[in-house]
Each structure stands twice: as C-alpha cells, then as structure tokens.
C-alpha cells in the first residue's frame, strides 16, 4: 500500500524538491509518495536486466537507464521511477534534453516486490499505456522465475508469459525489427531465485 507524504504539490515544486532529496519520491497528480527500498534479489535482477538490455542495444541509438531515472507520464501528470527504462527518442537523448527524466520510453521494466506489485500491475500499467512511444511493459517476478511482457499491438495490448524454461523475447524497436532474447538464467543470475 502506498501513502502520500505530501498532497497538492505542483509538478515544478516536486521536480525542484526531488533534485535535493535524499530519498526518491513518485508523483501522481499532485500527490507525492516515498519510494520503498528494495531487496538484494530485486537489486540483482534489475541490474541483470539493465546489463542485458544495455549490452544488446549498444550502438543502436537506444539508451538504457536504471533505477534513478524518472519517467514522466504527461497525460497522467505523473512521474515514476521504473527499475529499467529504454528510449531512443531524440527528445530524451538530445544534449538539451532534461537530464533527470525520460518522456518517450519504448520499454519499461518493473521488478515486482510484495509491497509494490499491485501498484506496478494496476496504477503504473494503466498510466504507462498513455505513453504513445511505449511498445513493451515488462514485469519480472523476484520470488520465482516468471516474466510477463505486455506489448502494444495494432489492436491493443497483448501479454506474453515466460516460465522458467523459456527464453524471454523483447523488441523495444519497431515490430519488424529483430528482437532481443535472454534466457531466464541470465535474468535471474546471482539472485538466488530458482
């Protein structure tokens, strides 16, 4: 469950406060929520996914960010901190682009934890769907080897579910581009999750 630590705050005041805050906060339509700390498994899995994506996308024009990069959902007046985010948008990567947030991601990854799973599955999933450039929203379980990939299609959103023996396929680029594939052992390496 999430509890607001402040309400009625403007986006500008939130962004200014976040620049000097010792802890991260998410912002949802004027309400500010403190972020909870993660477990070792959560941290290792997030790092693995970041490394896999960063290495696979190197030289492609895509940039991969982890943990401290905010995503702005303008249509929802919200700012979230996903575990991993990928963008290739010039507005995100240009020299004069904001350095503390991504506006046009193509892929977002959340590693589920018991305290945030409901928020990741409902609130964030619904909010992220308002980002027109988002092609994939990925949920990675941190207690069992299970990955869910929600993909934007011409007819809406479709889900691909991956179990322990599967190879996870992601495609943050256009539908006709070559996808990226990762084994579950790569995703969960060193996490202790079996």
Descriptive overview:
The structure is a single chain. With 194 residues, the chain is of the alpha+beta class. The chain has one domain: tt1808, chain A (Alpha-Beta Complex). Helices cover 25% and strands 33% of the residues. It contains 5 helices and 14 strands. The chain has helices spanning 11-20, 40-57, 90-93, 117-128, 184-188, and strands at residues 4-6, 25-28, 31-34, 63-66, 70-73, 78-80, 84-87, 101-102, 105-112, 136-141, 147-153, 156-162, 167-170, 180-183. The protein has a 6-stranded mixed β-sheet with strand order 1-3-2-6-5-8, sandwiched between helices. Strands 4-7-9-10-11-12 form a 6-stranded mixed β-sheet, with helices on both faces. The chain is globular, with a radius of gyration of 16 Å.
Helix residue percentage: 25-40%
Number of domains: 1
How much strand?
A: 25-35%
CATH architecture tag: Alpha-Beta Complex
Tally of strands: 14
CATH topology: tt1808, chain A
CATH superfamily: tt1808, chain A
CATH class: Alpha Beta
What's the helix count? Answer: 5
Q: What does the overall shape look like?
A: globular
User: Which ranges are low-confidence, i.e. pLDDT below 50, for 5 or more consecutive residues?
Assistant: none
The description of the largest β-sheet is: 6 strands, mixed
Radius of gyration: 16 Å
Biggest sheet, spatial arrangement of strands:
1-3-2-6-5-8
């Amino acid at each position: 469950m999430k509890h607001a630590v402040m309400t009625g705050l403007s986006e500008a005041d939130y962004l200014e406060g976040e620049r000097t805050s010792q802890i991260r906060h998410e912002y949802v339509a004027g309400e500010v929520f403190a972020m909870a700390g993660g477990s070792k498994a959560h941290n290792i899995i997030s790092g693995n996914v970041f490394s896999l994506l960063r290495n696979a996308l190197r030289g492609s024009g895509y940039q991969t960010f982890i943990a401290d990069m905010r995503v702005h959902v303008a249509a929802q007046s919200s700012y979230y901190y996903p575990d991993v985010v990928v963008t290739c948008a010039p507005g995100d990567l240009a020299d004069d682009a904001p350095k503390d947030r991504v506006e046009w991601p193509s892929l977002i990854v959340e590693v589920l934890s018991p305290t945030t799973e409901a928020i990741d599955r409902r609130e964030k999933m619904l909010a992220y769907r308002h980002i027109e450039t988002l092609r994939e929203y990925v949920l990675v379980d941190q207690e069992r080897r299970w990955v869910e990939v929600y993909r934007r299609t011409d007819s809406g959103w479709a889900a691909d579910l991956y179990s322990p023996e599967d190879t996870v396929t992601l495609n943050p680029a256009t539908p006709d581009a070559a996808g990226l594939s990762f084994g579950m052992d790569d995703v969960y390496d060193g996490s202790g999750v079996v």
